[in-house]
Amino acid sequence: MARYLLRRAAYFLFILVGVSIVIFTTMRLVPGDPIVYLAGPFATAKQRAAIRESYGLDKPVVVQYGRWLAKAAQGDLGRSMQLHVPVTELLFGKLRNTLLLVAGSMFIAILVGWSLGILSGFRPNGLIDRIGLVVALAGISLPAFWFGMLLIIAFAINLPWFPANGIVSERGDGGVFDVLWHLFLPAVATAALPCGVMLRMTRTAVLEIRRMTFVRALAAKGLPGRALAVHVIWNALPNILNVTGMQAGFLLTAAIFSEVVFSWPGLGLQIYAAVTSQDYTVAQGAVLFICILFLLFNVVVDVLRPIFDPRIRMA
Amino acid sequence: MANHHWNSVNRRALMAGAAASGSLLALSGIDNIARAQTATPKSGGTIVYAMEAEPDILDPHACGGWHTSRLVLQMYDQLVEHDLTASWQQGAPPKLVGSLAERWEISPDGLEYKFFLRKGVKFHDGTAFDADAVKYNFDRIFNEDAPQFYARAKAYRAADVYFLKSVEVVDPSMVKIILKEPFNSFLLRLANLGPGMVSMISPTALKKYGNEGIALHPTGTGPFRFVERVPGDRVVLEKNPDYWGGNPKMGPFLDRIVVKPVSDAAARVAGLRAGAFDMIIVPVPDSKQQLISEGFVWDQGTVHHNWYWAFNMRDPIFKDKRVRQAFNYAVDRQALCHDLLHDTAFPMEHGIVPPGMLSYDPDFKAYSYDPAKARRLLAEAGHPNGLSTTFVTSTDGSGQLIPVPIAERVQANLRTVGIDMKLQSSEWVSYFTKWISGGFKDVGAAQMSFGAPDPFWLEQTIGCTFFVGEVGGLNTGYYCNPAIDEVMKAARQAQPPKNGDPYAAWGLSKEAVALWAKANRMATEDAPLLLVLSDLNPFVYNKKVHGKVQTALEWFTFRTIWLG
Q1: Which of A40, A45, A166 is opposite residue B156, by nearest beta carbon?
Q2: How far, in Å, CA of B516 to CA of B518, rounded?
Q3: Is B317 on the interface with A (CB under 8 A)?
Q4: Are B536 and B29 in contact (CB under 8 A)?
Q5: B195 in reach of chain A (CB within 8 A)
Q6: Which of A31, A212, A300, B453 is the most buried (most CB within 10 A)?
Q7: What are B355-376's pLDDT values in tens digits?
Q8: In the predicted model, what is the mean pLDDT of residues B254-279?
Q9: SS3 of B300, please?
C-alpha cells in the first residue's frame, strides 16, 4: 500500500511539473507582450525595458522558470502582474467560490440526473423516459450563458425570487443562507449540461446491468422487485460514478459561462482574465491549481472504485 | 458663445429622443440637477455601483483606463482638478479648480508654475500633506534616481516627462514646478485622469507598503477611504469624515460605496432592474426605453471621447487625401447614432476634436453624410470602381462601446459607395497591445477610442515631430504633416493667459485655443482619421440616487451623491 501511494505521489509531481512547464512556455510563446499592455500607450522603449526588468522578464525563460519553480515549491506563486495581489490569495478565494458552484451544480445534476436516469433505465420508453430524454437534450443543447440569462430574466427580474448576480448581497451580511440563495440560479444554469449527460449515461448503465444474466437469475429465483432494483443500481454504480467524476472535473472550468453571466467570482473567470491580459503569474498559478484539483479528483475516484467494484478490489 | 451653441445642439438631440420616447424622463440630466439643487441632501447609506470591467491596480500613478480612474479618484486628490460639480451643460471641459493646491501662479515665460498648497490637510493615515509630500510623489513618477521611483508610473506620464525639469520645495506650503520649455497644457495634464493620474499618495504609506503594495492599501486625501478589495467581486470604500473639502452642502454624504465589476452589459442592466445595483455605467443602448419607462434615471452628456479609425498612411491607397475624405463622406453617422446606439452617442461632424475639449468648434461643418461626393472623390483619386481594404477593431474594451456592430454599419455604408471594407476583430487586450506597439502594419486602418479634456490630445493623436511613444504612440497610422505640427507646437508654447483671458480658468490663453482650433481644422481637412462618433457616456440609476452630476468628463465624483 505504501509503495502504491509513493508511486502515486511521484506520478502526481511529475504531472505537475510537466503541466507547469507547458503553461510557462505557452504563455511566453503567445504573440503579444504583457509588458506593452502594462506600460500603457505612452511608454517609450526605454521605459518598457525598465518595467520588463522589474518583473524579471528580461531573463532567459529557463532562468525565469527555475526561479518560479523554486518559489512555487515553497508555496509562493508570486504576485499578479496586473493587480499586484499575491496569486495564492487571489486564487484561493476564487477556488472556494468555484468549488461551491461546482458542488451546488453537481448536487442538482446528481439529484435530477441519477433519479431520472435510474427510473428511465427501469422503464425504458415509458413516460419518465421520454421526459428524461427531453430534459437531457435540453440540458446538453442549451448554451449555459443563454440559459443563465433566461433564468435571471424569469426568476430574478420578472419574478423577484432570486438575486440576479453575485455571491452575497451587496448590502447583506453574507451568511450561509445568503450564499445559498445566490447559488441557486447559477447552480441550475451550470447543472444543465452535466445533468443531461449523467441522465443518459445512468440510464444506459442501468439498462446494461438489467440485461445481464445474473439479474434474470435473481428474478427467476423470486427476488422482490425492490431488492432487485437495489442490486442493479449497486452494480451500475461504478460506471455512473465514473461519468459523474468526469463531469465534476469538467465543470471546474466549464463553470466560466455561469460565472460571467451571474458575476460569480470564480476560478474560470479569473483564468480567462489572466490569460487574455497575459498576466503570467496568475495564469501559471491558476493552471497549477486546476491541475492539482483534477489529480485530486482522480485520486478520490480511484480510491472509491474498489469500494464500489469488488472486481477491482479482488484484483 | 461656442459652448452655448453646442449645448443647444445636444439638447436638441436629447429632446428629439425624448419626443420619440414620449417620456420627459429622457431629459433626466437637467431634471436631476434641478432635483439636486432643491432637495436637502441626506447623510448615510450604501450605494452599489456596477462598473464595466474589473479595475486594474488601485495605484493612481499607474492605473490604466478611465474605468479604474473613476474609482481611484474617490480616494485621491490632485493639486488641481476639473470642477466635478459642474454638469456638462455648464461648459466643457469643466473649469480647473484648486484641490490640494489652493491657487497657482504661472510665470510670464510659462516655465515656472507655483502652487500654493492647502494647509491642514491630512492623508487617510494621518500623515500631514505638505510640499515634501508633493515632491515625494513627483519623484516617484519622474525621478529615476529616487528610491521610490516607479517605472510603471513614468511610462504612463511619458508626455509630461518630456516637459518636466524639476520640482522644488519652496516652503511647506509652496511647491515650484519648472518646465524645460513652455507647455501651457501642463495644468490640464495635472488634472487629467487615467491612464496614470498625478495624485498625491501618502509618503508614509508608500514607504510602508512599497511600490507594489500601495495598490493594495490606497492611502490618499480624498472624500472616501479604502476599506477592502476582493478581486473579481468588489471594491468597498467608506466616507472619509476628515475630508478637507467636506461640507454639509457638497458632501461627502454616502457612508459606503460598493463597486462591483460586471463585465456583461446585459447583466449590469439586469442587476439594476433587480435592485441589486443602484447605479450602472455603459448600459445596453437597446435597454434605454425600457429602463426609462420603469422609472430609472438615464443621464448622458457630451464627453471628450472620439471613436475613430486611424488610416494607415503607409498603405498606398490612403496616401491620397481624396480617398481619406471620401471615406469620411461615406459614413451616415446620424443614422448610426440614432438607430444602432439610440442616441447614446454623438455624430462626429465638427472635426477631429470632440465636444468636451476647448478647441471643439460646433460651427465647423466638417464631414456630413454625402455618398455622392464620396463616389466623386474616389473617382477623382483614381478609384472609379471603388476599392478594397481591411480595417481592424476590437470586440470590446474600455470606451469602445459596441465596436463590431458599429464597424459593421460603417462597412455597409462604405459598400454603397463601392468600398469593400473587410473587417477583422480581436479581443481587447491583445488588440490594444498590438495597437500600442504599432503592430497593425498591413491593415488599412485601426480603430481606437480616446480623448482628453486638454487640446494637447490632438498632437498626441496625429502629431509626428513630437514623438511620445516608441512607434508613434497614439499616432498608430504614422500620419505626418509638419505644417500642422508647427501650428500645434505654437499652440502649446503660447504664452500663459493674462488676467481676464476667457480661458484662464483652464490655464490656457485665447491665442492657444485659437491655434488648437486652427490645427483641428487643418487636420480635419487632411483627414488622417475616419471620424465616426463621440460617446455620450450614459449612466443609469434608480430614483434613490440624488446629486449625481453628469460631467463633461469621462469621470465623476461620488462626493455629491446622496441616497433619499
Answers
A1: A40
A2: 5
A3: no
A4: no
A5: yes
A6: B453
A7: 888 899 989 999 999 999 999 9
A8: 91
A9: coil
Contact A278 B213 (CB under 8 A): no
Better-predicted residue by pLDDT, B464 or B238: B238
- B383 phi and psi angles, rounded to 5 deg: -125, 65
Domain residue ranges of chain A, discontinuous segments joined by +: 88-267
The verdict on A182 touching B (C-beta cutoff 8 Å) is no
Q: Which residues of chain A have a CB within 8 Å of the CB of B276?
A: 163-166, 169-170
Specify the DSSP class assigned to residue B78: B
All three cell numbers of B224: 472616501
Q: Which residues of A touch B153 (CB under 8 A)?
A: none
Backbone phi, psi, residue A261, to 5°: -65, -40
- What cell was used for A8? 502515486
Q: Which pLDDT tens digit goes with each residue over A148-204?
A: 999 998 998 888 888 888 887 777 667 888 889 999 999 999 999 999 999 999 999
Contacts of B261 in chain A (CB under 8 A): 263
pLDDT under 70 in chain A at which residues?
1, 172-173, 313-315
Determine the pLDDT at residue B5. Answer: 34
Q: Which residue has the cell 482650433?
A: B517
Q: Which residues from B are below 8 Å from A153, CB to CB?
A: 270
pLDDT in tens, B379-432: 999 999 999 999 999 998 888 999 999 999 999 999 999 999 999 999 888 898
Cβ neighbours, 10 Å, residue B263 = 17
The DSSP element (H or E) to which B179 belongs, if any, is strand B174-179
Q: With a cut of 0.85, is the ipTM above it?
A: no
In CATH terms, the superfamily for domain A88-267 is MetI-like (1.10.3720.10)
- Is A311 at the interface with chain B, CB within 8 A? no
Give kind and range of the element (H or E) at residue B446: strand B445-450
CB contact A271 to B (< 8 Å): no
| Distance between A182 CA and the closest CA of chain B, angstroms | 12
Nearest CA-CA partner of B387 in B378, B395, B396: B378
Task: Decide if B270 and A156 are in contact by the 8 Å CB cutoff.
Answer: yes
Q: Name the residue among A297, A99, A117, A108 with its Cα closest to residue A197.
A: A117
Confirm or reject contact between B245 and chain A (CB < 8 A). Answer: no
* Side-chain half-sphere exposure of A69, counting CA atoms within 13 A: 16
Q: Which of A44, A259, A270 to mutate to test the interface with B (most CBs of B within 10 A)?
A: A44
B270: nearest Cα among A27, A155, A21, A300: A155
Strands (E), chain A: none
- Of residues B87, B72, B148, the one with CA closest to residue B539: B87
Element (H, E) at B8: helix B2-21
Global confidence as pTM: 0.85
Helix A87-122 crosses helix A176-211 at what angle (to 10 degrees)? 40
A5-16 tens-digit pLDDT = 788 888 888 988
Q: Residue B98: what are its φ and ψ, rounded to 5°? A: -70, 135
